[in-house]
Write a structure and sequence with these properties.
15 helices; three-stranded mixed sheet; alpha+beta; about 35% helix; about 425 residues; nine-stranded mixed sheet
């Protein structure tokens, strides 16, 4: 039950732009960040493959099977004319990702040798618990060293465990009459019995969330980023999760642009938490300015390219105020140093309730807390009533900021653990 609730909680958080990293949870400040992070998800059911994506998986499948196997298979178990035509004119993602798995590969008997024919390589993909193994760590170390240029002293087993092996746990639930896995998993890719790549996934009610991917340099040429993405999209389809969350989309980061190539994708509006299709129009807006909220862009009727002058926009007074606020950057949240620190209420962080809204909509004193193994309310703490919510170093100010990020719905359901 704990894992189940945790998965539903994380699913809710993803939809208000909060993301986990190991045992931490963070929310990016899209307005004030140098590189705004937008949550991006793909409608897996309606996935539209690109030519380069199809070419990648077809090249891998040819490598796994090998020319000798394909020649014999074509002779011993030929496809029908209809099947050949269907495969030529229609890309079937589920067939493509499973075609060369050891459990799917056809092994007819060769009449000449009296033995089953076998592919050039044995390939299997298994969904495993996110447990630590030395085999997984060695792939992680190789990936960090070659891809991220980390020194041996910068990679550790403890860091790997904390980052990629400390997830939600695992549980099975029945959804729509089918058993569905929830929790944190490692999707392990093994070639000839050797682990060559691993996707770190959170399987949540409503999505497959991609956390991280590692692969060994020996398979670098096969573009495991694309291969794993298509495999994870197929998991979202087959498992009934429907959506594939690809983490953050950072338009200013060239290495992130590939995410926009998986369609139909949507980005989360940082201000309203509504989803907008990642179209050419949205991409043009992201290129034209540092921060984009499509709800604001529509309301103010802003063009996709460079924003014109205020006179050209012809906005009334209320819209002018909103436009000015939309364009303005604020100070970022700083560390607590006495009473002069900056809080989230000072920076105009998108999607965050104002202090006035928190005081009006959320009864902070009734928030349940765990203290010395007991469940009580914040208002039961000695001194709570006298603490000043404007004193940025007080517990009341801290929980007000947390509530502003979570919203009334989650505050009602969560227990703050003050024993931790």
């Amino acid at each position: 039950m704990y894992v189940n609730r945790l998965c539903y909680f994380l699913m809710w958080l993803l939809q208000i732009n909060h993301w986990p990293s190991g045992t931490y949870l963070y929310k990016p400040d899209c307005r004030n960040s140098c590189c705004p992070n937008y949550t991006i998800r793909l409608d897996a059911i309606n996935y539209e493959s690109r030519k380069d994506q199809r070419q990648t998986i077809n090249a891998w499948n040819r490598f796994v099977t090998g020319p000798e196997y394909r020649a014999k298979a074509a002779r011993l178990c030929p496809k029908t004319r209809e099947e050949k035509k269907r495969r030529k004119n229609h890309f079937d993602l589920l067939t493509a990702v499973h075609d060369v798995e050891s459990s799917w590969v056809q092994r007819p008997t060769d009449p000449r040798t009296k033995r089953p024919i076998t592919p050039a390589h044995e390939f299997e993909v298994l969904l495993e618990a996110d447990d630590y193994t030395e085999e997984k760590y060695q792939v992680f170390e190789n990936y960090q060293r070659h891809v991220h240029n980390e020194k041996p002293t910068e990679t550790s087993r403890s860091g790997f465990k904390r980052f990629l092996c400390s997830g939600l746990g695992q549980i099975d639930q029945v959804f729509d009459g089918k058993k569905q896995k929830l929790g944190s998993y490692h999707q392990c890719y093994r070639l000839d019995g050797r682990l060559v790549a691993m996707g770190v996934l959170d399987l949540l009610p409503g999505c497959v969330s991609s956390v991280y991917l590692i692969y060994h340099q020996d398979v670098k040429e096969w573009y495991f980023g694309k291969l794993s993405a298509m495999r994870e999209i197929s998991l979202a389809i087959e498992g009934g999760y429907n959506y594939y969350y690809m983490g953050f989309y950072i338009h200013s980061c060239i290495k992130m642009r590939y995410k926009s190539q998986y369609q139909p994708s949507y980005i989360l509006d940082p201000e309203t938490y509504s989803w907008d299709r990642l179209t050419a129009d949205v991409l043009e807006r992201l290129s034209a300015r540092k921060y984009v909220s499509m709800s604001v862009e529509r309301d103010l009727r802003l063009p996709p390219n460079k924003i014109p002058s205020i006179k050209e926009l012809k906005l009334h007074s209320a819209e002018l105020t909103r436009f000015s606020d939309y364009q303005k950057e604020r100070n970022q949240v700083g560390p607590r140093h006495g009473g002069d620190s900056t809080s989230v209420f000072d920076v105009g962080m998108p999607g965050i309730m104002s202090l006035a809204e928190v005081q009006k909509e959320i009864p902070l004193g009734r928030w349940t807390i765990k203290l010395r193994s007991m469940l009580v309310h914040l208002e039961d703490l000695q001194g709570w009533a006298g603490w000043d919510i404007h004193d940025k170093t007080s517990l009341k100010a801290y929980v007000a900021e947390l509530a502003a990020g979570l919203g009334p719905g989650l505050v009602k359901q969560l227990v703050l653990n003050l024993d931790a």
